[in-house]
Amino acid sequence: MSHGNGSGDPEALRADIRRTREELGETVQALAAKADVKARVKESAAQTRERVRQRAGHTAAVVRESAHETGVAARRNPVPWVAVAAGAVAAVILIIVVRGRTR
């Protein structure tokens, strides 16, 4: 009896059947994994959470560094910061005076 493997050897046929069953099992597992939408969504959410954590950590580090550099610059040369603060105070006073006249 000659089948798909080209020999009538029963042991060769059994080995061919075993290989086919293994391949079929792997294919079924792969299809089951793709069909498990809930697990895929959970995995995707976990990956997204990790990316967000990493980006947030990086952003926080950049903000801390920028704040540190700004503080160092302000300590080195405080005159521009004092001028900005004085301008802000003047603007607030001007707004209060103008609103007081219109009421």
Structural write-up:
By secondary structure, the protein is mainly α. It contains 3 helices and no strands. It starts with 9 loop residues before the first helix and ends with a helix.
Descriptive terms for the model:
103 residues; mainly alpha; 3 helices; 87% helix; rod-shaped
Largest sheet: none
Spans of at least 5 consecutive residues with low confidence: none
Shape annotation: rod-shaped
Q: Which structural class fits the helix and strand makeup? A: mainly alpha
Summarize the structure.
The chain has 103 residues and is mainly alpha-helical. The protein contains 3 helices and no strands.
SSE layout:
Blueprint: H1 10-35, H2 37-76, H3 79-102
